[in-house]
Amino acid sequence: MSNISAAQFFAWIERYAAHIAEQKDYLTQLDAAIGDADHGANMHRGFQAVLAKKDDLQNSDIGALFKGVAMTLISTVGGASGALYGTFFLQASTMAGTKTELTPGDFASVLEKGLAGIVLRGKAAIGDKTMVDALQPAIKAYKRSIDSGESLEQALSKAVSAAEEGLKSTVPLVARKGRASYLGERSAGHPDPGATSTVLLFRSAAESLT
Amino acid sequence: MKKLINSPENVVLESITGLGAAFSDLIKVHTNPNYIIRADAPVKNKVALVSGGGSGHEPMHGGFVGRGMLDAACPGAVFTSPTPDQMFEATKAVNGGKGVLHIVKNYTGDVMNFEMAADLARAEGIDVEAVVIDDDVAVKDSLYTAGRRGVGTTVLAEKICGAAAESGQALKEVAALCHKVNANGRSMGMALTSCTVPHVGKPTFELPEDEMEIGIGIHGEPGRTRMKLKSADEITEILLTPIIEDLPFKAGDEVLLFVNSMGGTPLLELFVVYRKAHEILTKSGVKVTRSLVGPYITSLEMAGTSVTVLKLDDELTKLWDAPVLTPGLRWGG
């Protein structure tokens, strides 16, 4: 099975920035329904700042790439999403270290480390109507697929489907974390904006890592 | 969208630059990262107070930087928590060697970003304590939510703790005092109209001409319930009843009554609300001994009000009365 190079990981980040740019108004609209109407704008600002560091980032090892992404998001996004996506990439960077390519199995460990960071910082669990509802099943599906000997392409495609299923599962949920939780029952019937941007993260991976 | 802005991207930067120019005797504005500090910071051997949050709530927090209140404020983008590098740099800039208190409103983003900043500051050997303000009674089931939001009591805590720090109290004492203010303050707000976030360009929510949102948050996030518009007296009662029941405030208590404008409601109307709130409290035997009326924790141009009641004792009253000299709040010698 083919490994994933640092250049491909940079392409992943670029692809994600493009998806965020395309969907920023939609993400903000979702956030306006149950939050504070800033998710799309904030993520867009953060990933544009990441792209501005392209010259440094595209020649870095994978750990340095993810760390650069993390620090940029932490200092430019603000809100909970800056802290959470920042923590995800920061933890991912500690697992990737100075490697310049990862096996699909290594990538599973990197994703799991990132997820653990998010869970620790945000204290959210499955069913709280947060990004964890999309992230955790996506990573689980990816790892299961890789462990059972399927290709990277298959694994990423399963991750996207699981993230989408997870996102769908947030629609009827009553939020228990974040600003949406203040709505109580009124948060039901809307998809979670953070879970929506998480789906885009995996869609970008499927489009750029194989 | 009709706003006095040049561009949504620059509104916060241009606003804090203007604030700094207008009050250059009291504060200094640092940009990239953005924070506002007392002109005489760091003050040696005084506990420093740092607060912050999304912009759009002016004069909070930048307008409360100065003698007797905050040492630093970190403004985020509109309605978005500031970032850890801002709080970290601000914390370093105001640390006078006696420790730094972070006063944080209970919103997921604010709490997470302040936690990250406190980790960074502690790693550099700065003594940091953080107190989270969560006084909004509109949030009912706080076990199953991110908890109560931090609203009006934040202003009172910043004033009272600022006075305590000025008087030479230690970090642990100022932090304990901040917890005490939070424990004795309760708030509830309502909206008549939505606000428009500059980079969104349209109202955050739709509210028909004859309806109002009860329990609104300071970011235009919906509250407890939406209902047909009522008279000022009825609205005041709707806001005050859950506040009184929650602490509960009892006959014989002495309180500070704070009636706040969400930004778009004029003083003419605020005092109508104040009059009724004062009457309701007095009738239940609660004695209003201090008051604050005006736009202090706003939500852009939203029309509406919030009511905060803080139970006072001699210590809190004395600290409330102590001199304060900031752009947004000033009295005494």
Q: Key features?
A:
heterodimer, A: 210 residues, Serine Threonine Protein Phosphatase 5, Tetratricopeptide repeat, two-stranded antiparallel ribbon, 71% helix, B: 333 residues, alpha/beta, Rossmann fold, Hypothetical Protein Tm841, Chain: A,domain 3, 2 domains, 6-stranded mixed beta sheet, 8 helices, globular
Q: What is the residue-averaged pLDDT of chain B?
A: 95
List SSEs of chain B in N-to-C order. HEEEEHEHEHHEEEHEHEEHEE
Biggest sheet character of chain B: 6 strands, mixed
Query: CATH superfamily of the largest domain in chain B, please?
Result: Dihydroxyacetone kinase, domain 1
Question: For this structure, what is the CATH class of chain A?
Answer: Mainly Alpha
Q: Would you state the CATH class of the largest domain in chain B?
A: Alpha Beta
Q: Give the name of the CATH superfamily of chain A.
A: DhaL domain
- Please indicate the count of domains of chain A: 1
Q: What ranges of chain A have pLDDT less than 50 throughout 5 or more consecutive residues?
A: none
Structural class of chain B: alpha/beta
Average of per-residue pLDDT values of chain A: 95
CATH architecture of the largest domain in chain B: 3-Layer(aba) Sandwich
Task: Tell me the structural class of chain A.
Answer: mainly alpha
Widest β-sheet, arrangement of strands of chain A:
1-2
The SSE string of chain A, one letter per element, is EHHHHHEHHHH
The assigned CATH architecture of chain A is Alpha Horseshoe
CATH-defined topology of chain A: Serine Threonine Protein Phosphatase 5, Tetratricopeptide repeat
Low-confidence stretches of chain B: none
- Secondary structure tally, helices of chain A: 9
Total DSSP E strands of chain A: 2
Descriptive overview:
The complex is a heterodimer of chains A (210) and B (333). With 210 residues, chain A is mainly α. Chain A has a single domain (4-208), classed as DhaL domain (Serine Threonine Protein Phosphatase 5, Tetratricopeptide repeat, Alpha Horseshoe), CATH 1.25.40. Helix content of chain A is 71%, strand content 2%. In chain A, helix 1 (6-34) runs antiparallel to helix 9 (193-208), helix 2 (39-51) crosses helix 4 and helix 6 (104-122) packs antiparallel against helix 7. Chain B is α/β, with parallel strands linked by helices. Chain B folds into two domains: 27-184, Rossmann fold, CATH 3.40.50.10440; 185-320, Dihydroxyacetone kinase, domain 2 (Hypothetical Protein Tm841, Chain: A,domain 3). Chain B has eight helices and 14 strands. In chain B, helix 4 runs antiparallel to helix 5 (171-184). In chain B, 59% of the residues are buried. Classes of the chains: A mainly alpha (210), B alpha/beta (333). The A-B interface holds A 28, 32, 35-38, 41-42, 45, 74-84, 121-122, 174-179, 181-184, 186 and B 33, 54, 76-85, 107-109, 112-113, 115-116, 138-141, 144-146, 149, 197, 199-200, 204-205, 217, 219-223.
